[in-house]
Design brief:
There is one protein chain. The protein has an eight-stranded mixed sheet with strand order 1-2-4-3-5-6-7-8, sandwiched between helices. The protein has a single domain, classed as 3-Layer(aba) Sandwich (Rossmann fold), CATH 3.40.50. The radius of gyration is 18 Å and the shape is globular. It is an alpha/beta fold and about 300 residues long.
């Protein structure tokens, strides 16, 4: 029963309506952009978090984060949980542990799974495997898991070609890869991985928490992880100027991830990644939730943005 509830929770927030309510934060301020339009994907809300001492006289690194409505304010999230991004990043800035930065929170939509499922690994599946994947439903058996072929390439075009230019023209940002990062959890971790592999000239680092390697609900007879790992091996950017953070818990959905993460770790080692530019952490007893990710958010933030 507990597993079923988690599965339902894992996908139930993808259908939530785009609340226009601005998140309340305890540190810094939010600039909220309703229904940011795109020629590539559906419109969505964007929240830009600015630190308390924000000044147009400074230049800021940018951390792009997926599932934006889950990051700042538990009172407006579907499960009443949040990452506490404003508290963690705000504190780390005050403690001078990280460089000056802003956070761009990209809200998801009802097409979350289609936008976050890496398209190129999907293309490598056989037609039978694709048909089987497209026929899978969420845990309530009422909604298709993908609702169609993945549109993650378009989602990344939206970020790189539309959202990032808007952010860079509207805020005093450092636009180069060594100051541009992307992060997310679960399927949001998967699309963050895909983003840095597809656009290594844009993103200098990715934080992938509880990366959902299986792509679906099961690892049994599931060809998806192998295709994702194969893609990762072939498209991993240079360790000379890129950073990766991975982690996973051991409970609920996270219990599936360790074998695949270990394979990803071997790929990173073979490509020359070292502790200087790559971290993988296991968090025993931690589950698949915003509460769990909040507890360890400081680690990837300092790793990517540390002074």
């Amino acid at each position: 029963m507990k597993h079923f509830i988690l599965m339902t929770a894992f996908f139930s927030f993808i259908g939530m309506r785009l609340y226009a309510q601005t998140a309340t934060v305890s540190s810094g301020t939010i600039q909220h952009f309703d229904y940011f339009s795109s020629i590539y994907v559906d419109s969505r809300n964007i929240d830009v978090w600015l630190p308390e001492d924000f000044s147009t006289e400074k230049k800021y690194a940018v951390l792009y984060m997926n599932d934006g409505q889950m990051l700042f304010d538990s009172s407006t999230s579907w499960n009443k949980q949040e990452w506490g991004v404003d508290e963690t990043v705000g504190r780390l800035l005050k403690e001078k542990k990280i460089i000056d930065c802003i956070v761009v929170a990209i809200w998801n939509t009802s097409k979350r799974n289609m936008e976050f499922f890496p398209r190129k690994p999907y293309n490598s599946l056989t037609q039978t495997q694709k048909d089987d994947l497209l026929a899978k439903t969420t845990s309530d058996k009422k909604t298709l898991f993908l609702m169609g072929a993945p549109v993650s390439d378009n989602y990344l075009k939206f970020i790189v070609q539309e959202l990032k230019p808007f952010i860079d023209s509207s805020f005093p940002t450092k636009t180069d890869p060594k100051n541009t990062f992307i992060a997310g959890s679960s399927m949001g971790g998967l699309i963050s991985l895909y983003a840095i592999c597809e656009y290594p000239h844009v993103f200098g680092g990715a934080a992938c928490l509880s990366t959902h390697w299986p792509g679906t609900f099961t690892v049994k007879n599931n060809p998806v992880p192998a295709e994702i790992l194969s893609y990762f091996k072939e498209n991993l950017p240079s360790p000379e100027n890129h950073k990766f953070y991975f982690d996973y818990g051991t409970e609920t959905l996270d219990a599936m991830y360790k074998p695949f993460q270990l394979q990803a770790d071997e790929i990173l080692k073979s490509k020359g990644y070292t502790p200087d530019n790559w971290i993988t952490r296991e968090f025993k007893g931690q589950d698949h939730s915003e509460k769990a990710w909040r507890k360890r958010l400081e680690i990837p933030v300092v790793f990517l943005l540390g002074k």
